[in-house]
Amino acid sequence: MNADPQMPQIPLRDRFVAGMSHAACTVNVVTTDGPAGRAGVTVSAMASVSADGEAPTLLICVHHLSPAAPKIIENGVLCVNVLREDQSYISEAFAGRFKDELGDKFECTDWVVLANGTPRVADPLVAFECRVLSAERVGTHHVLLCGVEDTHSARLGSPLIYANRSYGSSRRIEAPRSMRGVLNGEGIKLKVGCFHTFGPFLMPSLIRQLGGLDIELLEGDQRRLTESLVSGETEIAVIYDNDLDERFDWQALSVLKPYVLMAEDHPMARQAEILPTELAAEPMVLLDAPPSSAYFTGILEAQGVEPLIAHRSASFEMVRGMVAHGLGYTLLCTKPASSMSYDGLPLVALPLAGDHALSQIVLAWRKGHALSSAAQRFAQKCREKFARA
What we know:
D-Maltodextrin-Binding Protein, domain 2, 5-stranded mixed sheet, elongated, alpha+beta
């Protein structure tokens, strides 16, 4: 394929570096000690070569400008410390990030001296005690072939991973049982976002109905969930339509009407409906989770009522509990299955009289993104569930 002469050509080196940033690898601190002195450096280029032969062998690459490189080669011995997911601070120390805080990199953690004289992190995920078999300069790096003389493994922990220019951790993913399952969306992890107030009343039954689908659930407010869609952290989300912009495609599932929630013994709890003006002098417990907070206060302000906010909480059940204990009324859209608070006190839901801006629950995804088969199955089950409601 011919390159477009109008497009600037990115140098191969830059494309290679960008491409390799996506290749996940463990984070390793290589240490040495001996006649040349003690040294250590963080490296990502470490791999097994062979488990057979006179001794197992592994390969590491160290930049030629690293002060540790000549010392490792001259000492001829080293320890490759594979870090745990909670040990990124050790990686940062040996990458030179804490020069102003540490007079000596080795102050960042505790050490054990191995039989070959090299220092080992006291509690790494695993450490390989090695001897240098050969060293060759390739480009900017020394490529070291190392013979493994002993290993030191932790009983627990997960490896610290580096990919996409940031730290991460590994997570177990079950392999599909069959190719048929793959084609049906089984064994594929679907990352779903759900607004935290109605998630508990929606997701458990959906997950059960989609028994063959591996769903990773992210709960949060509108801002958190829209950010997760944009970043690709989630593929699809069940959220409100408030503030959705041109970055998203969405499909309406349900229209929600605001209602007033009161304690059973509130003086207005026996009314057929509540007028917004009747709430003007009443303390309000606000569900303080965007966009809910602005939506509910906006409903009252549109009717000329300035809400008297006495308490706030981002927790749906905390708000309901405060209302049940007589701390004020609240406005909500989602109606839970129970008419009692979390601690067992009765609540009364009453219609809010008048015409008000309505809110919609929608399925949303990144604009132009072709939904996976798993996401399409999830979307269909969502539509069926709300159609029955």
